[in-house]
Amino acid sequence: MKIGIDMGHCLTGYDTSARGVFVESEYNRIVGKKVIQKLKEKGHTVINCTIDGGVSSMYDSLARRVKIANENNVDIFCSIHFNAGGGEGTETYLANPSAFINQEYYKKNYAIAKSINDKVAASCGFVNRGVKHEDFYVIYHTKAIAVLVEVCFCDSKSDFAKLDTDKVAIAICEGLTGEDYSVKIPKVETTDNLYRVRKSWSDVKSQIGAYRILENAKKECDSRSGYSVFDKNGVKVYPIAKAENPKNETIPNSSNSKEKIIKEYSEKGLFTCTVDAINFRNKPYVGSDNPIQGQYYRGEQVYYDYVVITDKYVWISWISAITGVRRYMPITDRIKNEKWGYVV
């Protein structure tokens, strides 16, 4: 199946999005990119109809999206949005019945819209506001079956607390195709105080042992290449991951040693880690008052939208899709001229 995915609104200029607890256009893309990836993994052809900027008007933005979909003869078109205006919950739109060539085509479109709406609402426990009719430009002028889903309200703290972008992406994919996209993870007995030896915490099938004594887990880990030891919370405890500086990390004792910001600017890209691990924090400096929040490991990737250059590091930044907190991670040691990955 050939599916057109439109991640709603532009990032700059005309046709920018609503802003609430989070910025709609950013989350349109967080969900949309996951939808595209999952559809491709199932063998579908995906046409990205998104326009990020460079338009002369809102009409120009909408017309370009439709043009991409129509020129590529997509079978289904889905525009992904988040709502605003003080409400809560999920609603999905299709054009009015009069816009369709016949009743059968309308019924088919309605069935897909309802499936997407019901699955998205159920995926995170959102209020189900139902399927609605509106002749929005992108769904009215697209030749294919076309829907516009408003996942939830970006100005609702309640909706944001429920939001799980992975679950939403799966729900959209299932509603579009009628296929099962759920991840089947074998159930593993979770006994407190066990150290598990795996290739990664998410790769349950790779587990080769679980030990009450850490030293025994380390020995098992050392006997195999590519394995690590994780505690009951999924935190990697062995081998000790390397921090921003792959050789060592000097932590200043106070904020008096904060890095001097030389330049900062908006930039969108995808970073791939090429060292053992890089720590990320909530602010762009290394200090005891700015604790590590997590790590990205070799081969892992993260989309970013902001760059901060200090006198010590080049930092990239993004908003966590899970917590909504902005994160900062160094990718270059400016003093030693060492790069710890690459961006595209």
Automatic annotation (TrEMBL):
Domain MurNAc-LAA, first and last residues per copy: 66-177
GO molecular function: N-acetylmuramoyl-L-alanine amidase activity
Keyword Hydrolase in annotation: yes
GO biological process: cell wall organization; peptidoglycan catabolic process
Stored SUPFAM superfamilies: Zn-dependent exopeptidases
Gene3D superfamilies reported in the protein's UniProt record: SH3 Domains, Zn-dependent exopeptidases
Superkingdom as given in the UniProt entry: Bacteria
Signal peptide (residue range): none
Keywords, comma-separated and alphabetical: Cell wall biogenesis/degradation, Hydrolase
Gene Ontology cellular-component annotations: outer membrane-bounded periplasmic space
Family annotation (InterPro entries): MurNAc-LAA_cat, N-acetylmuramoyl_amidase_3, SH3-like_bac-type
Protein name (record): MurNAc-LAA domain-containing protein
Species whose genome carries this gene: Clostridium isatidis
